[in-house]
Amino acid sequence: MRTNLKGMLSITALLGLSAAGVASAGPAKITAQSIIVNPVETKLGVQVWVNKDASGRGNPVYRKGENITIGLKTNQDAYVYLFNVNANGQIDLFFPNSYEESNFVQAGVTRIFPADGAKYTLTVGGPNGQDKLLALASTKQLNIDDIARFVQGEGFARVKVQGQENLARALSIVVNPLPEDGWVTDVATFRVGNPDGNQGSNQGGATGTVSVTPGQPAPSQPVQPAPQQPAPAQPVTTIQPGEKQNGDFDQAMVQAYDRLKGSESLGEASSYAVPWGDGLWQKFQGVAAYGDAVLLHANGSSRAYAVHGRLLERYLALARAENGATRPPNRLGWAAGDEKVIPRNSFGTSGLYGFFQNGALYGTEKYGTFWLTGPVLKTYQGLGGSGSFLGFPTRDQYLLNGAWAADFEGGTLRTVNGVVKVYRK
């Protein structure tokens, strides 16, 4: 059950120990103990653990209803995926989630879930039995759409597969395009039951929760209408999401409108879907505080994404400055993910986050809307983004002595001799 203030997700944690299998796609090795293992030696390493066993090699016991904290760390910059498989084979995806801006993790930085001040908790639910956490780190972002999907308004993804072996087989396909040494995994185990070792009956139906308390909603003041360039042709009759002037439909836009509950967040279309740069764009009138919106669909991508309000205003301003708004701004590129509302952080600031092919936009009512790209953005997100000690950016990324730098609520990032350095206030 969900309300505007609290959401619930089953955490029924981790794994059915099915017999080992052999992956038919990719180099992955499927094992009962470690789920999926790269058979080649890798320089990339990842560690995962729970709060009752910092070594990550024990098998601590948790009671149902007890809070659990998960830690992870990589020895190289990597994208990390954290799966949770329970004794009945139910699977949850804890990371990435809608409360973290990115699943990029900086080398040597310990990430804790939930972090201090997070707007959710992880609570063990059961059923009784042996559980496992699987952390998969990769040198490149993975397409896990066939394993899990995010639904607008929900903090955690809905996982489509069930059972350890099915997860392993699905992941073996996902990692197949990577270089042989481009991914690695680690597993931490824990038991659910009584500390005396009496696990009781392994009855299904008992679930745990990830309780989510979202931050503040999108800005309360309507954003001024987006600039007129680029200017899709205006319809003379009511048109549908994804509809082109010739009557055809862009299916990625149709699906995006449904995924985002467009009648609630985008409103009615105010233009046809027309070419823009090497893709398509369609304008919407927006709903209340969301402000005007567009759907953007880059050629070659199977998905379209929305940009709203203050983020859209800044996005188009950058495009006008770079190319007269005839195509997306090069420093950002096309939208590559759905916008996120970022909960109030330790500085008391909440805002919006937009993810693009080449960078990101962060918008707050307090400071404004600013762009970050490249190693500065990766370092920032690897530390935890706006939820970290750095907080939200307070200006655009800028050049300092010929190298990129960025200022934040709690510190600064500076590029020194090609390496991004972190400075606290």
TrEMBL record:
<feature type="domain" description="DUF4384">
    <location>
        <begin position="61"/>
        <end position="140"/>
    </location>
</feature>
<feature type="signal peptide">
    <location>
        <begin position="1"/>
        <end position="25"/>
    </location>
</feature>
<dbReference type="Pfam" id="PF14326">
    <property type="entry name" value="DUF4384"/>
</dbReference>
<keyword id="KW-0732">Signal</keyword>
<protein>
    <recommendedName>
        <fullName>DUF4384 domain-containing protein</fullName>
    </recommendedName>
</protein>
<dbReference type="InterPro" id="IPR025493">
    <property type="entry name" value="DUF4384"/>
</dbReference>
<feature type="region of interest" description="Disordered">
    <location>
        <begin position="190"/>
        <end position="246"/>
    </location>
</feature>
<feature type="compositionally biased region" description="Pro residues">
    <location>
        <begin position="216"/>
        <end position="233"/>
    </location>
</feature>
